[in-house]
Specification:
By secondary structure, this protein is α/β, with parallel strands linked by helices. It contains ten helices and ten strands. The protein has two domains: about 130 residues, 3-Layer(aba) Sandwich (Rossmann fold), CATH 3.40.50.620; about 170 residues, HUPs (Rossmann fold, 3-Layer(aba) Sandwich), CATH 3.40.50.620. α8 links the parallel β9 and β10. α7 crosses α8. The chain starts with 10 loop residues before the first strand and ends with a helix.
Length: about 300
């Protein structure tokens, strides 16, 4: 599929986190990105999203490589690791801070839960309570006092201000993203984005100099990823990602959010629910062909 709006080759990527072994859902995502790149004469990248250094395990990195090679996938070297990009994330954060688009938030989860119990704020697309504004208007001297005392804080996006800046940059045009169904003959459709439903989202976590949202946007742009292939569970996050792309002046990619694989209870396959890993399936004698057949059949039910 050619896109005249992108002066770059067709590039996809698979970006797992090494905090557990891959499962069938990961196999679907990796193979979809790999096969789309192959069919369109493009490139396929592998990226290790290891910003959570406390949960990252090197054995899981090794297992990721082994599982993907076993499936018959190949990728370009070297493999980017997000833990090597912390300076780039800090520089981007400084840019947003200078624009007045981020503010420190010292709230604990308990404080947020207590506040929304008294005055419900609604939920974001992931089902988490929207941030109730605690510490948003903290006086500069109080911020410095808390920082001097070593209180942990995250950095949140001032959504109202960010949307105003984005509207100026877009010259009043709506914020949209391009969603593609993966078929070469079908052009992407424009979807209106609504980042406000995420509220004042966390852009830099307390425990690491970035968040998933910041890192993935910056890394996709740095690696010139033209087509972002990922599951439908990240469809809503695209609203926030497009906002960040506009604020940073980054190229607009095309998105393909593929369907998810579900377990018999209707839940998305995940590491947290300890769904059977590819490594465990391999140990029982499964073959790559059997994995592909299982995924095809599961897709029909998902």
């Amino acid at each position: 599929m050619s896109d005249p709006n992108l002066n770059a080759p067709f590039i996809t990527r698979f970006a797992p986190s090494p905090n557990g072994d891959l499962h069938l859902g990961h196999a679907l995502s990796a193979m979809t990105g790999f096969e789309l790149a192959a069919r369109n004469g493009g490139r396929f990248l592998l990226r290790i999203e290891d910003i959570d250094t406390q949960r990252t395990r090197e054995e899981h990195v090794t297992h990721i490589f082994d599982d993907l090679r076993w499936l018959g996938l190949t990728w370009e070297e070297p493999v980017l690791r997000q833990s090597a990009r912390f300076d780039a994330y800090r520089a981007a954060t400084a840019t947003l801070l200078k624009q007045g688009l981020l503010y420190p938030c010292f709230a604990t989860r308990g404080e947020v839960d207590a506040a929304v119990a008294i005055d419900p704020t609604g939920t974001d697309p992931d089902g988490a309570p929207l941030y109730p504004g605690l510490y948003k208007d903290l006086a500069p001297h109080e911020i410095e006092r808390r920082r001097a005392n070593g209180e942990p804080f995250c950095l949140r996006l001032d959504m109202d201000q960010a949307l105003k800046v984005a509207q100026t940059l877009l010259r009043g045009a709506p914020l949209t993203f391009r969603e593609w169904n993966g078929e070469s003959a079908s052009p992407p459709v424009h979807v209106v984005a609504d980042p406000s439903r995420w509220g004042d989202a966390i852009i830099v976590r307390k425990d690491t100099p970035t968040s998933y949202h910041l890192a993935v946007v910056l890394d996709d742009a740095m690696q010139s990823v033209s087509h972002i292939v990922r599951g439908r569970d990240l469809y809503a996050a695209t609203d926030l990602h497009r906002l960040l792309q506009v604020l940073f002046g980054l190229p607009e990619p095309i998105y393909h959010h593929h369907r998810l694989l579900l377990d018999p209870a209707g839940q998305k396959l995940s590491k947290s629910l300890r769904h059977t890993s590819l490594r465990a399936l391999r140990a029982t004698g499964a073959t790559p062909a059997a994995i592909r057949a299982t995924i095809r059949n599961a897709q029909a039910r998902a």
